[in-house]
């Protein structure tokens, strides 16, 4: 099965096809990120967020174009966002940031825009909607606790007090809720959700 077929099947919701795309590109995205950021932890974050954005934005990908430049563009922008947060460049502007057969970019080519991009806002909004949909389908006894933990970002102790249940019960229900969501929605989507929601 070629790359174009994997992309087409992934757009149709085929989880195995998307997993194969992940396998094809995860090391390449990591290597690109390492050339820019020089940080193992940040590079792992870049890989996760890149595939999250690819997953959520596959319906916007033009199948008449090549997949490779598109996914590298997404990963590159995530790297640049991290550089902005550091408030200091990791490389000289004229130093190549990617050694790849069809990519030859320097930071001169990719100076970031400080304002959030419309695409980024749409992706974040879609992901929030997807998480809301996932939470809404949880059994009642898990729904409010998961919302409090991962959307409102309440501590275990605060959730315990708000629901008048022991902390251990809160932890147990969250664990069972995650198992329920993994079985219903698949491990890949939840794996990439961890970067934004600290889900695992």
Descriptors for this entry?
200 residues; Rna Polymerase Sigma Factor, Chain: A; Arc Repressor Mutant, subunit A; 9 helices; 0% strand
Q: What can be said about this structure in brief?
A:
Helix content is 69%, strand content 0%. The protein contains nine helices and no strands.
How many distinct domains? 2
Q: What fraction of residues sit in β-strands?
A: under 5%
CATH architecture of the largest domain: Orthogonal Bundle
CATH superfamily of the largest domain: RNA polymerase sigma factor, region 2, helix turn helix motif
Tally of helical runs? 9
Domain RNA polymerase sigma-70 region: 21-87
Organism: Paenibacillus plantiphilus
Keywords: Sigma factor, Transcription, Transcription regulation
Protein name: ECF RNA polymerase sigma factor SigW
Polypeptide structure, described:
By secondary structure, this protein is mostly helical. It has 2 domains: 3-86, Rna Polymerase Sigma Factor, Chain: A, CATH 1.10.1740; 118-197, Orthogonal Bundle (Arc Repressor Mutant, subunit A), CATH 1.10.10.10. The protein contains 9 helices and no strands. The protein is globular, with a radius of gyration of 19 Å. The two termini are 32 Å apart. Residues 88-94, 97-102, 106-116 and 194-200 have low confidence and may be disordered.
Topology:
Layout lengths: L2 H9 L3 H23 L2 H18 L9 H20 L31 H19 L3 H11 L5 H8 L3 H19 L1 H11 L3
Helix pairs in contact: 1-2, 2-3, 2-4, 3-4, 3-9, 6-8, 7-8, 8-9
């Amino acid at each position: 099965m070629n790359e174009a077929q994997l992309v087409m099947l992934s757009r149709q919701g085929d989880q195995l096809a998307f997993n194969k795309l992940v396998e094809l590109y995860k090391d390449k995205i990591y290597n690109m990120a390492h050339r820019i950021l020089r940080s193992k932890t940040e590079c792992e974050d870049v890989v996760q967020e890149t595939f999250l954005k690819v997953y959520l934005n596959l319906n916007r990908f033009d199948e008449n174009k090549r997949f490779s430049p598109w996914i590298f563009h997404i990963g590159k922008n995530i790297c640049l966002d991290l550089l902005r947060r550091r408030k200091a460049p990791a490389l000289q502007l004229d130093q190549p940031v990617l050694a790849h057969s069809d990519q030859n970019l320097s930071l001169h080519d990719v100076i970031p825009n400080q304002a959030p991009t419309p695409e980024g806002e749409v992706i974040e909004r879609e992901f929030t909607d997807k998480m809301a949909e996932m939470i809404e389908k949880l059994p009642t006894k898990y729904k409010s606790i998961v919302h409090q933990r991962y959307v409102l970002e309440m501590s275990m102790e605060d959730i315990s007090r708000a629901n008048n249940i022991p902390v251990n019960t809160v932890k147990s229900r969250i664990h069972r809720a995650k198992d329920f969501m993994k079985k219903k929605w698949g491990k890949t989507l939840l794996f990439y959700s961890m970067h934004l929601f600290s889900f695992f």
